[in-house]
Amino acid sequence: MLYVALFIAAVLVLAAFAVNEKNAGMLLSGYRELDAAAQANFPLKAYLRFLRRWVVVLAVLFVAVSAYTEYYLPPSWQTAPVGLLLAGLSIFIWQSARFSPTSKTLNKLGAFVLLLMGAGITFMGFYEEKESRMVIGPHEIHIEGSFGITIAHADLAAWNLTDSLPKTRFKTYGYAVKGLYKGVFKTRDERSVRLYVRQEAGPYLYLRTRSGEEIWYGMQPEETRQMAQIIEGLQLPMQP
Fold first, then answer.
1. Domains in the chain with CATH codes
2. SS in 3 state form for 23-83?
3. Global pTM?
4. Which residues contact 187 (CB under 8 A, 6 or more apart)?
5. Any idea what DSSP says for residue 154?
6. Which residues of the chain carry a pLDDT beneath 50?
7. What is the pLDDT of residues 108-165, one digit of tens each?
8. Measuring CA to CA, which residue among 75, 177, 179, 180 is closest to residue 126?
């Protein structure tokens, strides 16, 4: 995450300083749409100073908060830097409305939307950090939580208790932050699998459906062993 933050911050700073009085007519959105008279009356020098100052401060804060969350805060805080970045951009747009020769209402509306997005992304980090939970009913197995799944007992083809996880290449659909994996992932041998696991929390419960879908579950070792005992009582085939 820190490397991504450094890259984003560098792009923002470079973009801000790439715009100058000579090329603003081509690169500066909003300004280039103005006619010649409006451009002549626009306080371009003051706006560029304002833009660069804001971007530098925001970039430094973004990297600093990213580093702090990476090394000192729990995984649930990992989306906080993105929320901060969007909140900072929201304040920038709101403050820059005073330079706008057109509708200031649109500027402030855009700022409000960005602020809501930042709050939503930050909240999502806390919500998604919740561990999945397996519930075995009389007819179905439920993996509750975001990106969960329901499997009918009749659809289970095999199961096993294992200490290993498949080697994944990337996330197709789900959540993967600091060892917590929930959702659908593509493996190195091009299989599509479902993971609901916390790394280094083995053993893991392996389930395979009659359609060939593979699921690994394991959040807490003791809970996983208890789920395995319940499934064993269902007298389903055990994967060798």
1. 2-128 (no CATH), 133-233 (2.30.29)
2. CHHHHCCCCCCCCHHHHHHCCHHHHHHHHHHHHHHHHHHHHHHHHHHHHHCCHHHCCHHHH
3. 0.60
4. 166, 167, 168, 169, 193
5. G
6. none
7. 777 778 778 877 777 776 666 678 899 998 889 999 888 889 999 989 888 999 998 9
8. 75
